Structures are given as structure tokens and as C-alpha cells.
Amino acid sequence: MKKRALISVSDKQKIVEFAQGLVELDYEIVSTGGTLKALQNASVPAISIDQVTGFPEIMDGRLKTLHPKVHGGLLGRRSNPDHLQQMEANEIEPIDVVVVNLYPFKQTLVSEGVTKEEIIENIDIGGPTMLRSAAKNFDDVLVVVDPEDYTPVLEGIKDASISLEFRQKLAAKVFRHTANYDAIIANYFLTQTGEKFPETYTVTYEKVQSLRYGENPHQVAAFYKNPIQNGMSLATAKQLHGKELSYNNIQDANAAVEILTEYDLPAAVAVKHMNPCGIGMAESIAEAFQLAFDADPISIFGGIVALNREVDAQTAEKLSEIFLEIVIAPSFSEKALEILTQKKNIRLLTMEMAQKDESFKLTTVDGGVLIQNKDIGSVDVGSVEVVTDRAPTEEELQNLLFAWKAVKHVKSNAIVLAKDNQTIGVGAGQMNRVGAARIAIEQAGDKALGSVLASDAFFPMPDTVEEAIKVGVTAIIQPGGSKRDQDSIDVCNEHGIAMVYTGMRHFKH
Ligand SMILES: NC(=O)c1ncn([C@@H]2O[C@H](COP(=O)(O)O)[C@@H](O)[C@H]2O)c1NC=O
């Protein structure tokens, strides 16, 4: 008896060649509607699925292969005499190879103007069922879900070199594939019902690239992306120049771009170890970068710079004067590219920065995962509360809001000093707030005179305010909410300092 291959594919690339190869290896091809048509048009001999099932394809393709003649042929164990006897008694012929890829659910979901009905119709039922039956019986059935496997499968059959290990690898790929497919469907339904934290949380990611190593060279790592991109992402950024991104590069570039989305005017952000070491905002992108650079000319060395406007020649000249790992921007002028590509070690990336990714953020802990929505909270001129005798001047208020946007992205405990749309001191990741303030103040030096201070969380005591006043800080922004708020307010009032509350905390751990 001829061996039998069942082919039912939505993505028909390379299928004619593969089917032809199987025919040459003496396989009988069984196929479903559209696939059969494609094969017959290419003169590949094949029979229709209803010749096997004795049942027509009905309900617009909702029922084609869901039949015991198909699933018996896939699930029956060839080494089990009872199964063989039952197959014979029910006139079930074995199927030896299954080639299936599924209705393009994901592509349909993201296509413009798609209707709910189209989305639902693109949930493949028969395909995953066949894949799972065949994958369960991988000892006896070769299951092919990925067109990349057509050639190795054909070659393996040709020279009789297909091992059990290879069969199992194909089966493993199937279960990953159907799990990914189902996860995307499950998440679509979740968005429809509006549930946020169901009893099980299904995530799926698709590989972007293996990485040379993780945070440190002894750690292994890879980069995976969300299959449904709902905002800006480094996974879809375009690299124009330089070496492959590293694990730390991706984290830092992500941090830089996230900070940048806070600012509408031309802005530049320099990042080191996921903290901003310099942020500048100005009329032009060249000036903004100059401010970000001057904010901390030491830390920027080997850092990552993100800019929210096209990099022009003038900015490129400035950027090229220092060693940077990455420059990332919406675009680069031709001249800027010419200047920057002369530097072999710099990585240049372009990326859409307008949208915010508002998906959930997952942080693993041993044995579990914490899930929260991203910190997209913000305040504006109208939503801050003045709590001191003196209200901030308009200029102070603008600087306070600039500093508040910056401090949101600094590891807690965080203090930022800023002046004239430039960060001048960043105290990050300290275990006490006044310690963070001292670092920011020391970095600001003489520039602290006339600056403003932002704190990511409230002041448990007035010591931070006292330190700030000593160096000439004139206005402060903080969430408020401490039992001892009044102590800080009193110190401000004694010195004519303005303080505003945001009513919103920005811890970042
Ligand atoms: N309903 C079924 O019995 C069924 N059997 C196979 N399919 C899918 O139909 C597609 C191929 O259809 P066609 O050969 O008609 O182009 C494949 O993606 C396959 O996974 C089915 N469709 C959806 O569930």
C-alpha cells in the first residue's frame, strides 16, 4: 500500500514543490479544498479529503478534516495490534505525513478594517486538531507545521535517515505552534471581555534573535517579542549601522525611548544602566543633545542616546565626538548618517516613538510573576497642588514638570535636580531618600543654585528639603502623603521655597 500524506495549508508557499517531492517518493497526496486546487493547478496528483472521509466539506470549511477516518489514520498506533485491527474494521487507512499550517489568525487580527466575524472565522479548528493528533503519535506520523522543514523532511524520507529524535522535534514544534496560536486567540477573547487578571495568565512571545549573552557573559539570553505589537518596540526598530544589539543594549535603549516619550519638544536622553544620566529639551535637537551631554559629560561615555527628532548633521557632529553604544532616533538625515557611520562601533537605530506601549509589564520572581500595567501616569500644570505659602513661578513650574517626568524613570529612591530644561543632578537607586538627594546635589555643584528638585516619592522627614535649600534649590515637586508632610512644608515656608504635590508616586524598582 502507498504511504499517504495529508496536506492542508493556508500558507501555500513552497507547497507545490514539497507535494511533488512526496509524489516522487511514492506518496499518495490527500488534500483539502484550496490546497487541492493549488496542487492540481500545478499538475501534482492528489485526491480530495472527501474521498477519504466520504463526507463533504461543509459549513464554509468549518468541517473538512474533523472525521474519524482522518483522526483514526493519525492516532492509530502502528505497533498496537488492537489499534491496527480497529483501523481495519473501520476502514481507516493510516496517514503517514501531515502537512498543516493554520488560518492566519494573527495577521487577520491586525489587518485594517477587519470585522469581528472575519476574526472569528480565522480561528482554525480542524488544523490544530490534526496537528495535535499527529504530534501525539509522532512515532508513526511525521508532522510538518513549518515550511522551513519541507526540505529536511523530504531529504530525510529520501535517504531513510529520519530519526525518532527528529520526529519528536517536529512534534515539539507543533505543540509550541498551537500553544502560541491559542494564546493569541485567548488574549483576543480577553480583550473582548475586558478581564484583566483571569485565573490563568497566558503569554506567548516570538523569537527576535538569540543574544551573544545576557546581562553578563556567563548568562545565556535571547530576545522575544510580543506577537501583537501594540506600540513602539525595539523588536521592530530598524538597525542602520553597527554590531548586533546586546542584552544590556536592548534594556538601556528601551529605557531611553520610554523616557523620551514623556517629552513633546525636541529632547535628548542619555542613559546608563537604565537610568537617565542626562536629559535635555530645547528648540532644536542639536541644542537638546548639548544639554543632555552637559548634564553629565562623564556618565554619558559608553551610553545610549535617544532623540525624538531627526538627527541632523550638526547633532551628528556632536554625537560623533564621544563614544556611544547606540544612537536611536525617528530618523537620520543623509549627512548625519554619513558622519556617524564613520564610527565602526556605534549602533544606529530608527524607531517610531510616538505611541506608548500600554500593555502589561511582567516581572519574574522565583516561582512566579508579578503583573501590572505600565506606569503611564502623568501630571500637568492643572493637576499639581501648591502646598506652600509661595506658589512656583511659571518658569519654576515648567522646570518642575520637566524634572517630574525625568524622576519617574529613575530607579528609586530617586531625586532629580533640573534647571532650564536640563537635568543637572540625578540621584538613583539609593536606600534612603536624603542619600539620593546628596548624590544629585553633589553632581549639580554650583548649578544647583536656582534649580528645582523632584522626588519620586514623599519625604518621610524634612532632611531632603533642608539639604536642597542649603544649595539654593527654589522649588520642589513630590507626591505628598507622608505623616510628616507638614515638617517639610514648614521648612519650605521658612525659606520662601515653593512646593507642589502631584498626588502620584513613581516608584521604579
Ligand atoms: N474545519 C476543518 O476540518 C479544517 N481542516 C483543515 N482546516 C484548515 O484549512 C486550511 C486549508 O484550507 P484549504 O486547503 O481549503 O485552503 C488549513 O489552514 C487547515 O488548517 C480546517 N479549517 C478550520 O478549522
Automatic annotation (TrEMBL):
<dbReference type="InterPro" id="IPR024051">
    <property type="entry name" value="AICAR_Tfase_dup_dom_sf"/>
</dbReference>
<dbReference type="GO" id="GO:0004643">
    <property type="term" value="F:phosphoribosylaminoimidazolecarboxamide formyltransferase activity"/>
</dbReference>
<dbReference type="GO" id="GO:0006189">
    <property type="term" value="P:'de novo' IMP biosynthetic process"/>
</dbReference>
<comment type="similarity">
    <text>Belongs to the PurH family.</text>
</comment>
<dbReference type="GO" id="GO:0005829">
    <property type="term" value="C:cytosol"/>
</dbReference>
<keyword id="KW-0808">Transferase</keyword>
<keyword id="KW-0658">Purine biosynthesis</keyword>
<dbReference type="Pfam" id="PF01808">
    <property type="entry name" value="AICARFT_IMPCHas"/>
</dbReference>
<comment type="pathway">
    <text>Purine metabolism; IMP biosynthesis via de novo pathway; IMP from 5-formamido-1-(5-phospho-D-ribosyl)imidazole-4-carboxamide: step 1/1.</text>
</comment>
<keyword id="KW-0511">Multifunctional enzyme</keyword>
<feature type="domain" description="MGS-like">
    <location>
        <begin position="1"/>
        <end position="145"/>
    </location>
</feature>
<keyword id="KW-0378">Hydrolase</keyword>
<dbReference type="GO" id="GO:0003937">
    <property type="term" value="F:IMP cyclohydrolase activity"/>
</dbReference>
<protein>
    <recommendedName>
        <fullName>Bifunctional purine biosynthesis protein PurH</fullName>
        <ecNumber>2.1.2.3</ecNumber>
        <ecNumber>3.5.4.10</ecNumber>
    </recommendedName>
</protein>
<dbReference type="InterPro" id="IPR002695">
    <property type="entry name" value="PurH-like"/>
</dbReference>
<dbReference type="InterPro" id="IPR011607">
    <property type="entry name" value="MGS-like_dom"/>
</dbReference>
<dbReference type="Pfam" id="PF02142">
    <property type="entry name" value="MGS"/>
</dbReference>
<dbReference type="InterPro" id="IPR016193">
    <property type="entry name" value="Cytidine_deaminase-like"/>
</dbReference>
<dbReference type="InterPro" id="IPR036914">
    <property type="entry name" value="MGS-like_dom_sf"/>
</dbReference>
<comment type="pathway">
    <text>Purine metabolism; IMP biosynthesis via de novo pathway; 5-formamido-1-(5-phospho-D-ribosyl)imidazole-4-carboxamide from 5-amino-1-(5-phospho-D-ribosyl)imidazole-4-carboxamide (10-formyl THF route): step 1/1.</text>
</comment>
